[in-house]
Amino acid sequence: MFTSHLARVLSPLRSERIGVLLGIALCAGCQAPGPVELASPRSPQVVIRPTSNQAIPARLLADIPSIPGQTIWERVGRGTSWWSQVGPNPRVSSQMAWLMGNPGFVTQASRRATPYVHLIMQSLQQRGLPSELALLPMIESAYNPMAVSPQMAVGLWQFMPATATDYGLRRTPGYDGRRDVLASTQAAMDYLERLHTLFEGDWLLALAAYNAGEGTVTRAREANRRKGLPVDYWHLELPRETKDYVPRLLALSRLISNPSEHRLRLHPVADQPYLASVALPYPVGFKQLSTACGISENDLRMLNPAYSSSNTAGGPGHVLVPVTGRGPLLAYLSGSSREGAAEPERVQASTGVVVAGVP
């Protein structure tokens, strides 16, 4: 059964406290006004903390078989190439040493990535973007959509408020687009594409700017030009965190390109979609949505952490559901889930009040 399988998968994670157990090398977020410097690339500060009692939504694993065939991590690994282009590099080696010395970080983050990583890889491939970017949320937030940095960067992609506004991530009393996995992923890709263009096709500079802000990277390049020094990422005088940030992604991509060689344990994630986005023609209560999908209201809320109220009022008009729940939900929304079914309850967008029936 869907729900019983969910409960088995979620159980090991209910006691997992992100800010306590990982001790991981994470960044402070996108375009932070004053980038935080890590104490050491091997013993970094923890910069995410839980903001609610919600468990990590591992219940999304329901009805997804553990297959012996290709995993999504194999697809990600085959697509990585940046690390091989860099060649031997002490900063990358230092980050590899930390990751290999703290294998639990990658294992746990890859487990939390299970519901999202296929969606992100599909979006990257549709845009022709590098596979390495699917690993960025692992560094940014350990794939926790509820992550918040000390600088108040939020979500999988760690958007600061100003950057979120610039890239269309709305915030209302009942909704924060930075925690919307679908919306924030599209916004992050828009931002990364812009940075890639701004820095003349140099992805390492684009990533540095994603972490420290484009102004910080531009000023560092201008300073090097005045001194007659190279202006590539490796020669720039950047905040210490940013000096670790890009090598950390390169190290991670190298490990994931050949995990067995480095004795890296990745949570097996089938290379198939776990989630489906369903457009809502009107705001709906999560109780009604959960009944239609056949999963608990709590599970559905965990799938959609951007919503902070009991309904979807104030949001962008979509929800993420398990792929098995898409059909029943569409039928419910159309009022034809079964003969004689009651019409769906909708919510007045302006008040959040549930109104029975569809006018």
How would you characterize this protein structure?
A hairpin with a 6-residue loop joins strand 5 and strand 6. The protein is globular, with a radius of gyration of 21 Å. With 359 residues, the protein is mainly alpha-helical. It has 16 helices and six strands. It folds into two domains: 207 residues, no CATH class; 80 residues, no CATH class.
Q: How are the SSEs placed, and which strands pair?
A:
Elements: H1 2-10, H2 18-21, H3 72-79, H4 82-86, H5 90-101, H6 103-112, H7 117-127, H8 136-141, H9 161-166, E1 171-172, E2 175-176, H10 181-198, H11 203-212, H12 214-227, H13 240-257, E3 275-279, H14 286-293, H15 297-303, E4 318-322, H16 323-333, E5 346-347, E6 354-355
Antiparallel strand pairs: 1-2, 3-4, 5-6
Helix pairs in contact: 3-13, 5-13, 7-10, 10-11, 11-12, 11-13, 14-15
Give me a quick take on this structure.
This protein has 359 residues and is mainly alpha-helical.
Keyword list:
two-stranded antiparallel sheet; disordered N terminus; 359 residues; single chain; mainly alpha; 44% helix; disordered C terminus; two-stranded antiparallel ribbon
SS summary, helix count? 16
Radius of gyration: 21 Å
Q: First CA to last CA: what distance?
A: 35 Å
The number of domains is 2
Q: Poorly predicted ranges (pLDDT <50, ≥5 residues)?
A: 1-59, 336-345, 347-359
